[in-house]
Amino acid sequence: MLQFRKMQSRKTGALKVTEGHQSPPMTMSSIKIECVLRENCHCGESPVWEEASNSLLFVDIPAKKVCRWNALSKQVQRVTLDAPVSSVALRQAGGYVATVGTKFCALNWEDESAVVLAAVDKDKKNNRFNDGKVDPAGRYFAGTMAEETAPAVLERHQGSLYALFADHHVEKYFDQVDISNGLDWSLDHKIFYYIDSLSYSVDAFDYDLQTGKISNRRSIYKMEKEEHIPDGMCIDTEGKLWVACYNGGRVIRLDPETGKRLQTVKLPVDKTTSCCFGGKDYSEMYVTCARDGLDPQGLLQQPEAGGIFKITGLGVKGLPPYPYAG
Ligand SMILES: O=C(O)[C@H](O)[C@@H](O)[C@H](O)[C@H](O)CO
Ligand SMILES: [Zn+2]
């Protein structure tokens, strides 16, 4: 039985999913999962859709790379930086911003240069940034963690959550973070959702968009055992959260109001790290994943590990990413 389930989860291609409990089903959606780019990322992360160029931006953290995959031409451009790059975001002024090592940087794609905007965790030499995302008011939120000796093996409580404001000043929200990860904001901008991976929880805070202040932390979902480690996250236009499950080989859709899981979509790779919506009207989901941490057998069974996956037929859309305002 276990073996059978495992084989099922390895299957790619079209599979029929019936929604709701009507019989006969009133709505059928055909979910398709496709590896659109075999990038062999050590640790792919931070997928961001750039509508203007019809591209998906993402990073490979340990490879110190920011990549841009054009969905029309299928070509990839890569910029290599001098430290692990853990997230990338659009910038209102043009170009991008990225978290590089423990620095918030502005990235000029044309000349491949990175300019430091601010630095954090100066007293913590073993730290680096991890996941980051821009809030609806243009602040770049990102958290830190101790560098891992192996996936999810690290000195605990070393990370903090920060935001880079438009005037380039940085605010620190809290410390004691293990692995700062997924983040997004509710549709009314009144809630900030956040994941510290090793808490195995998806948390929510009240959010004040005017000031960027957060308060009243609570858990809205505790991971099930087979879902493993919560990693990257994004919200859809129905206000539901999508969480990539590291080691769980899936993305799950959560209702933050009821705390219930609404849907599970399995992928043919175990180390799914993050997800975002993109493509036409943000109706496609893109998922990043990692190769690092797989043993030789795992690499043989999951040849697309480290690639970029596209999921279509979900029947739900996402939102455009917010650009950094500074
Ligand atoms: O992608 C990330 O967010 C981290 O940088 C990764 O290293 C893994 O997610 C982590 O090991 C599992 O939590
Ligand atoms: Zn992550």
UniProtKB/TrEMBL annotation:
<keyword id="KW-0862">Zinc</keyword>
<feature type="binding site">
    <location>
        <position position="130"/>
    </location>
    <ligand>
        <name>substrate</name>
    </ligand>
</feature>
<dbReference type="GO" id="GO:0005509">
    <property type="term" value="F:calcium ion binding"/>
</dbReference>
<dbReference type="Pfam" id="PF08450">
    <property type="entry name" value="SGL"/>
</dbReference>
<dbReference type="GO" id="GO:0005634">
    <property type="term" value="C:nucleus"/>
</dbReference>
<feature type="domain" description="SMP-30/Gluconolactonase/LRE-like region">
    <location>
        <begin position="43"/>
        <end position="290"/>
    </location>
</feature>
<dbReference type="GO" id="GO:0030234">
    <property type="term" value="F:enzyme regulator activity"/>
</dbReference>
<keyword id="KW-0479">Metal-binding</keyword>
<feature type="binding site">
    <location>
        <position position="231"/>
    </location>
    <ligand>
        <name>a divalent metal cation</name>
    </ligand>
</feature>
<feature type="binding site">
    <location>
        <position position="181"/>
    </location>
    <ligand>
        <name>a divalent metal cation</name>
    </ligand>
</feature>
<comment type="similarity">
    <text>Belongs to the SMP-30/CGR1 family.</text>
</comment>
<protein>
    <recommendedName>
        <fullName>Regucalcin</fullName>
        <ecNumber>3.1.1.17</ecNumber>
    </recommendedName>
</protein>
<dbReference type="InterPro" id="IPR005511">
    <property type="entry name" value="SMP-30"/>
</dbReference>
<feature type="binding site">
    <location>
        <position position="45"/>
    </location>
    <ligand>
        <name>a divalent metal cation</name>
    </ligand>
</feature>
<dbReference type="InterPro" id="IPR011042">
    <property type="entry name" value="6-blade_b-propeller_TolB-like"/>
</dbReference>
<dbReference type="InterPro" id="IPR013658">
    <property type="entry name" value="SGL"/>
</dbReference>
<feature type="binding site">
    <location>
        <position position="128"/>
    </location>
    <ligand>
        <name>substrate</name>
    </ligand>
</feature>
<dbReference type="GO" id="GO:0019853">
    <property type="term" value="P:L-ascorbic acid biosynthetic process"/>
</dbReference>
<dbReference type="InterPro" id="IPR008367">
    <property type="entry name" value="Regucalcin"/>
</dbReference>
<dbReference type="GO" id="GO:0008270">
    <property type="term" value="F:zinc ion binding"/>
</dbReference>
<comment type="subunit">
    <text>Monomer.</text>
</comment>
<keyword id="KW-0106">Calcium</keyword>
<feature type="active site" description="Proton donor/acceptor">
    <location>
        <position position="231"/>
    </location>
</feature>
<keyword id="KW-0963">Cytoplasm</keyword>
<dbReference type="GO" id="GO:0005737">
    <property type="term" value="C:cytoplasm"/>
</dbReference>
<keyword id="KW-0378">Hydrolase</keyword>
<feature type="binding site">
    <location>
        <position position="148"/>
    </location>
    <ligand>
        <name>substrate</name>
    </ligand>
</feature>
<feature type="region of interest" description="Disordered">
    <location>
        <begin position="1"/>
        <end position="25"/>
    </location>
</feature>
<dbReference type="GO" id="GO:0004341">
    <property type="term" value="F:gluconolactonase activity"/>
</dbReference>
